[in-house]
Structure prediction request, 301 residues.
Amino acid sequence: MSTAGWCSQIFGGHAFFFFFSAFHSPDYESAEFREFCAACYRAHSFKPSLSLAGLHAVLTVAAAREPVGYDALAARLDQSYATTSTMAGALSDGRGRRPGLKLLRRVSGEDRKQKKLEASRTGYALARLFVKTAISKAVFENKGAVDEKYILSDQLYSRILPSLRLALNVASDIQLSTFCVLLYVCQNQEKFGYQGEHSSVIAQKLGLSNLSRSLDRLAEGYAGYLGYKLLELHKKSTDRRVTLPSLSDAGARLMSDIAAQLRQKPPSVVLKPKPESLHRAKGPSEIKDFDDGDFDNIEWH
Prediction:
Protein backbone atom coordinates (compact mmCIF):
# COMPACT_ATOMS: atom_id res chain seq x y z
CA MET A 1 0.00 0.00 0.00
CA SER A 2 1.48 3.32 -1.07
CA THR A 3 1.30 6.72 0.54
CA ALA A 4 -0.68 9.20 -1.52
CA GLY A 5 1.42 12.31 -1.79
CA TRP A 6 -0.60 15.48 -1.98
CA CYS A 7 0.32 18.55 -3.96
CA SER A 8 -0.83 22.12 -3.78
CA GLN A 9 -0.42 25.31 -5.70
CA ILE A 10 -1.73 28.63 -4.41
CA PHE A 11 -3.39 31.07 -6.80
CA GLY A 12 -5.06 34.16 -5.37
CA GLY A 13 -5.59 32.58 -1.96
CA HIS A 14 -6.91 29.27 -3.27
CA ALA A 15 -5.15 25.93 -2.86
CA PHE A 16 -5.89 22.68 -4.69
CA PHE A 17 -4.81 19.54 -2.88
CA PHE A 18 -4.79 16.26 -4.78
CA PHE A 19 -3.68 12.78 -3.79
CA PHE A 20 -3.61 10.95 -7.11
CA SER A 21 -4.75 11.51 -10.68
CA ALA A 22 -8.08 9.90 -11.59
CA PHE A 23 -9.07 8.25 -14.85
CA HIS A 24 -11.58 10.17 -16.97
CA SER A 25 -13.88 8.70 -19.61
CA PRO A 26 -17.29 9.80 -20.93
CA ASP A 27 -18.32 6.13 -20.70
CA TYR A 28 -18.08 6.33 -16.90
CA GLU A 29 -20.58 9.21 -17.00
CA SER A 30 -23.04 7.53 -19.38
CA ALA A 31 -26.66 6.89 -18.42
CA GLU A 32 -26.21 3.20 -19.23
CA PHE A 33 -23.29 2.80 -16.83
CA ARG A 34 -25.09 4.74 -14.09
CA GLU A 35 -28.17 2.53 -14.43
CA PHE A 36 -26.01 -0.62 -14.33
CA CYS A 37 -24.22 0.55 -11.18
CA ALA A 38 -27.49 1.51 -9.48
CA ALA A 39 -28.99 -1.88 -10.33
CA CYS A 40 -25.97 -3.69 -8.88
CA TYR A 41 -26.21 -1.61 -5.70
CA ARG A 42 -29.92 -2.40 -5.37
CA ALA A 43 -29.38 -6.10 -6.04
CA HIS A 44 -26.70 -6.24 -3.34
CA SER A 45 -28.91 -4.37 -0.89
CA PHE A 46 -31.72 -6.84 -1.58
CA LYS A 47 -29.57 -10.01 -1.49
CA PRO A 48 -26.29 -9.21 0.34
CA SER A 49 -24.90 -12.75 0.07
CA LEU A 50 -25.32 -12.96 -3.72
CA SER A 51 -22.18 -13.56 -5.77
CA LEU A 52 -21.61 -12.01 -9.18
CA ALA A 53 -21.74 -15.49 -10.73
CA GLY A 54 -25.05 -16.06 -8.97
CA LEU A 55 -26.43 -12.79 -10.35
CA HIS A 56 -25.24 -13.80 -13.81
CA ALA A 57 -27.04 -17.15 -13.46
CA VAL A 58 -30.31 -15.55 -12.32
CA LEU A 59 -30.28 -13.09 -15.22
CA THR A 60 -29.42 -15.90 -17.66
CA VAL A 61 -32.51 -17.83 -16.56
CA ALA A 62 -34.68 -14.69 -16.61
CA ALA A 63 -33.50 -13.92 -20.16
CA ALA A 64 -34.53 -17.36 -21.42
CA ARG A 65 -38.30 -16.62 -21.10
CA GLU A 66 -38.95 -20.33 -20.50
CA PRO A 67 -37.70 -22.96 -18.02
CA VAL A 68 -34.05 -23.88 -18.54
CA GLY A 69 -32.66 -27.35 -17.89
CA TYR A 70 -29.65 -27.76 -15.63
CA ASP A 71 -27.54 -29.10 -18.48
CA ALA A 72 -28.48 -26.20 -20.78
CA LEU A 73 -27.79 -23.68 -18.02
CA ALA A 74 -24.42 -25.29 -17.27
CA ALA A 75 -23.49 -24.88 -20.94
CA ARG A 76 -24.61 -21.23 -21.00
CA LEU A 77 -22.65 -20.47 -17.84
CA ASP A 78 -19.64 -22.47 -19.05
CA GLN A 79 -19.45 -24.50 -15.85
CA SER A 80 -19.97 -28.09 -14.74
CA TYR A 81 -23.34 -29.70 -14.15
CA ALA A 82 -22.40 -30.31 -10.49
CA THR A 83 -21.55 -26.64 -9.95
CA THR A 84 -24.78 -25.59 -11.65
CA SER A 85 -26.82 -27.97 -9.50
CA THR A 86 -25.27 -26.58 -6.30
CA MET A 87 -25.83 -23.01 -7.50
CA ALA A 88 -29.44 -23.80 -8.44
CA GLY A 89 -30.17 -24.89 -4.87
CA ALA A 90 -28.60 -21.77 -3.39
CA LEU A 91 -30.51 -19.48 -5.78
CA SER A 92 -33.88 -21.22 -5.37
CA ASP A 93 -35.29 -22.91 -2.26
CA GLY A 94 -32.01 -24.03 -0.70
CA ARG A 95 -30.09 -27.23 -0.14
CA GLY A 96 -30.51 -29.32 3.00
CA ARG A 97 -30.81 -27.00 5.98
CA ARG A 98 -29.45 -24.03 4.10
CA PRO A 99 -32.17 -21.62 2.93
CA GLY A 100 -32.08 -20.40 -0.64
CA LEU A 101 -32.34 -16.89 -2.06
CA LYS A 102 -35.63 -17.66 -3.84
CA LEU A 103 -34.60 -15.88 -7.02
CA LEU A 104 -35.23 -19.02 -9.08
CA ARG A 105 -37.86 -21.74 -8.96
CA ARG A 106 -37.21 -25.43 -9.62
CA VAL A 107 -39.84 -26.91 -11.91
CA SER A 108 -40.46 -30.31 -13.49
CA GLY A 109 -39.27 -31.01 -17.02
CA GLU A 110 -40.67 -33.25 -19.70
CA ASP A 111 -40.06 -36.28 -17.49
CA ARG A 112 -39.80 -36.72 -13.72
CA LYS A 113 -36.03 -36.98 -13.76
CA GLN A 114 -35.41 -33.77 -15.68
CA LYS A 115 -34.72 -30.65 -13.63
CA LYS A 116 -35.44 -27.15 -14.88
CA LEU A 117 -35.29 -23.61 -13.52
CA GLU A 118 -37.30 -20.47 -14.10
CA ALA A 119 -37.05 -17.02 -12.56
CA SER A 120 -39.32 -16.38 -9.60
CA ARG A 121 -41.29 -13.15 -9.33
CA THR A 122 -38.46 -11.87 -7.14
CA GLY A 123 -35.91 -12.94 -9.73
CA TYR A 124 -37.76 -11.12 -12.49
CA ALA A 125 -38.00 -8.01 -10.30
CA LEU A 126 -34.24 -8.14 -9.79
CA ALA A 127 -33.63 -8.57 -13.54
CA ARG A 128 -35.93 -5.65 -14.32
CA LEU A 129 -33.68 -3.33 -12.28
CA PHE A 130 -31.08 -3.57 -15.04
CA VAL A 131 -33.39 -2.66 -17.93
CA LYS A 132 -35.89 -0.21 -16.43
CA THR A 133 -34.99 2.56 -18.85
CA ALA A 134 -35.36 0.38 -21.95
CA ILE A 135 -38.74 -0.93 -20.80
CA SER A 136 -40.02 2.55 -19.90
CA LYS A 137 -38.88 3.90 -23.27
CA ALA A 138 -40.63 1.08 -25.16
CA VAL A 139 -43.83 1.55 -23.16
CA PHE A 140 -43.80 5.29 -23.92
CA GLU A 141 -43.04 4.86 -27.63
CA ASN A 142 -45.65 2.14 -28.09
CA LYS A 143 -48.27 3.64 -25.79
CA GLY A 144 -48.11 0.69 -23.42
CA ALA A 145 -48.50 -2.10 -25.98
CA VAL A 146 -45.23 -3.94 -25.39
CA ASP A 147 -44.04 -7.38 -24.39
CA GLU A 148 -41.94 -6.46 -21.36
CA LYS A 149 -40.41 -9.93 -21.05
CA TYR A 150 -39.23 -9.77 -24.67
CA ILE A 151 -37.56 -6.41 -24.04
CA LEU A 152 -36.05 -7.70 -20.81
CA SER A 153 -34.69 -10.77 -22.59
CA ASP A 154 -33.25 -8.76 -25.47
CA GLN A 155 -31.54 -6.24 -23.18
CA LEU A 156 -30.14 -8.90 -20.88
CA TYR A 157 -28.71 -10.94 -23.76
CA SER A 158 -27.30 -7.99 -25.69
CA ARG A 159 -25.94 -5.73 -22.94
CA ILE A 160 -26.15 -6.90 -19.33
CA LEU A 161 -25.01 -10.53 -19.47
CA PRO A 162 -21.96 -9.77 -21.68
CA SER A 163 -21.01 -6.97 -19.27
CA LEU A 164 -21.17 -9.29 -16.27
CA ARG A 165 -19.19 -11.89 -18.19
CA LEU A 166 -16.38 -9.36 -18.72
CA ALA A 167 -16.08 -8.99 -14.94
CA LEU A 168 -16.31 -12.74 -14.31
CA ASN A 169 -13.55 -13.36 -16.85
CA VAL A 170 -11.28 -11.30 -14.61
CA ALA A 171 -12.63 -12.33 -11.19
CA SER A 172 -14.69 -15.52 -11.44
CA ASP A 173 -15.34 -15.85 -7.70
CA ILE A 174 -16.03 -12.20 -6.86
CA GLN A 175 -18.93 -11.40 -4.55
CA LEU A 176 -21.50 -8.89 -5.77
CA SER A 177 -20.70 -6.74 -2.72
CA THR A 178 -17.03 -6.55 -3.74
CA PHE A 179 -17.94 -5.79 -7.34
CA CYS A 180 -20.15 -2.95 -6.09
CA VAL A 181 -17.14 -1.49 -4.26
CA LEU A 182 -15.23 -1.46 -7.56
CA LEU A 183 -18.13 0.26 -9.31
CA TYR A 184 -18.43 2.83 -6.54
CA VAL A 185 -14.73 3.68 -6.68
CA CYS A 186 -15.00 4.13 -10.45
CA GLN A 187 -17.98 6.45 -10.12
CA ASN A 188 -16.39 8.48 -7.31
CA GLN A 189 -12.65 8.30 -8.00
CA GLU A 190 -12.37 12.10 -8.26
CA LYS A 191 -13.68 12.45 -4.70
CA PHE A 192 -10.99 10.10 -3.43
CA GLY A 193 -8.20 11.43 -5.63
CA TYR A 194 -8.90 15.15 -5.57
CA GLN A 195 -10.77 15.63 -2.30
CA GLY A 196 -9.23 12.90 -0.16
CA GLU A 197 -12.62 11.52 0.83
CA HIS A 198 -12.41 8.72 3.42
CA SER A 199 -13.08 5.27 1.99
CA SER A 200 -15.46 4.59 4.89
CA VAL A 201 -18.11 6.42 2.85
CA ILE A 202 -18.26 3.32 0.64
CA ALA A 203 -19.38 1.16 3.55
CA GLN A 204 -22.01 3.72 4.48
CA LYS A 205 -23.38 4.06 0.96
CA LEU A 206 -23.40 0.34 0.16
CA GLY A 207 -24.25 -1.01 3.60
CA LEU A 208 -21.08 -3.09 3.98
CA SER A 209 -19.87 -4.52 7.28
CA ASN A 210 -16.34 -5.47 6.18
CA LEU A 211 -15.16 -2.92 3.64
CA SER A 212 -11.47 -3.52 4.29
CA ARG A 213 -11.70 -7.12 3.07
CA SER A 214 -13.37 -6.03 -0.17
CA LEU A 215 -10.74 -3.32 -0.75
CA ASP A 216 -7.90 -5.74 -0.04
CA ARG A 217 -9.37 -8.38 -2.35
CA LEU A 218 -9.77 -5.85 -5.15
CA ALA A 219 -6.16 -4.77 -4.66
CA GLU A 220 -3.30 -7.08 -3.62
CA GLY A 221 -5.32 -9.59 -1.62
CA TYR A 222 -5.01 -10.79 1.98
CA ALA A 223 -4.09 -13.99 3.84
CA GLY A 224 -5.10 -16.96 1.71
CA TYR A 225 -6.79 -14.90 -1.01
CA LEU A 226 -5.12 -13.53 -4.11
CA GLY A 227 -6.02 -9.98 -5.08
CA TYR A 228 -7.76 -9.06 -8.31
CA LYS A 229 -5.39 -6.09 -8.78
CA LEU A 230 -8.24 -3.89 -9.98
CA LEU A 231 -7.64 -1.22 -7.32
CA GLU A 232 -4.64 0.50 -5.79
CA LEU A 233 -4.83 1.53 -2.13
CA HIS A 234 -3.06 4.63 -0.86
CA LYS A 235 -2.56 5.97 2.64
CA LYS A 236 -3.42 9.63 2.89
CA SER A 237 -0.21 11.54 3.54
CA THR A 238 -1.95 13.96 5.90
CA ASP A 239 -3.67 11.17 7.89
CA ARG A 240 -2.37 7.64 7.47
CA ARG A 241 -5.51 6.23 9.07
CA VAL A 242 -7.35 7.13 5.90
CA THR A 243 -7.27 4.76 2.90
CA LEU A 244 -7.81 6.24 -0.55
CA PRO A 245 -8.76 3.70 -3.25
CA SER A 246 -8.06 4.30 -6.92
CA LEU A 247 -8.55 2.26 -10.06
CA SER A 248 -5.49 0.42 -11.29
CA ASP A 249 -4.82 0.35 -15.03
CA ALA A 250 -6.49 -3.09 -15.11
CA GLY A 251 -9.47 -1.79 -13.16
CA ALA A 252 -9.88 1.23 -15.42
CA ARG A 253 -9.72 -1.00 -18.47
CA LEU A 254 -12.34 -3.37 -17.08
CA MET A 255 -14.67 -0.49 -16.22
CA SER A 256 -14.16 0.98 -19.70
CA ASP A 257 -14.93 -2.34 -21.36
CA ILE A 258 -18.07 -2.84 -19.27
CA ALA A 259 -19.32 0.71 -19.86
CA ALA A 260 -18.70 0.36 -23.60
CA GLN A 261 -20.52 -3.00 -23.72
CA LEU A 262 -23.49 -1.46 -21.94
CA ARG A 263 -23.57 1.30 -24.58
CA GLN A 264 -22.87 -1.21 -27.36
CA LYS A 265 -20.13 1.03 -28.70
CA PRO A 266 -16.33 0.87 -28.82
CA PRO A 267 -14.68 2.16 -25.63
CA SER A 268 -14.07 5.90 -25.50
CA VAL A 269 -10.57 7.24 -25.01
CA VAL A 270 -9.56 7.12 -21.34
CA LEU A 271 -7.61 10.14 -20.12
CA LYS A 272 -5.60 10.83 -16.99
CA PRO A 273 -4.61 14.39 -16.05
CA LYS A 274 -0.87 14.93 -15.88
CA PRO A 275 0.35 15.79 -12.35
CA GLU A 276 1.96 18.99 -13.62
CA SER A 277 -1.40 20.07 -15.08
CA LEU A 278 -3.11 19.44 -11.77
CA HIS A 279 -0.41 21.55 -10.09
CA ARG A 280 -1.47 24.51 -12.19
CA ALA A 281 -5.20 24.10 -11.51
CA LYS A 282 -7.01 26.01 -8.80
CA GLY A 283 -9.42 23.15 -8.22
CA PRO A 284 -10.96 19.98 -9.68
CA SER A 285 -13.60 21.99 -11.52
CA GLU A 286 -10.91 23.28 -13.89
CA ILE A 287 -10.09 19.80 -15.20
CA LYS A 288 -13.02 19.97 -17.65
CA ASP A 289 -11.29 22.91 -19.30
CA PHE A 290 -7.93 21.15 -19.73
CA ASP A 291 -6.49 20.89 -23.24
CA ASP A 292 -5.50 17.58 -24.82
CA GLY A 293 -1.92 18.21 -23.82
CA ASP A 294 -2.89 18.27 -20.15
CA PHE A 295 -3.84 14.59 -20.23
CA ASP A 296 -2.03 11.31 -20.69
CA ASN A 297 -3.86 9.05 -23.13
CA ILE A 298 -4.13 5.60 -21.60
CA GLU A 299 -3.24 2.86 -24.03
CA TRP A 300 -4.01 -0.69 -22.88
CA HIS A 301 -1.41 -3.34 -23.54
User: Anything to note?
Assistant: The longest helix spans residues 148-170. Residues 6-15 have pLDDT under 50 and may be disordered. Residues 2-32+175-297 form a domain with the Arc Repressor Mutant, subunit A fold (CATH 1.10.10).
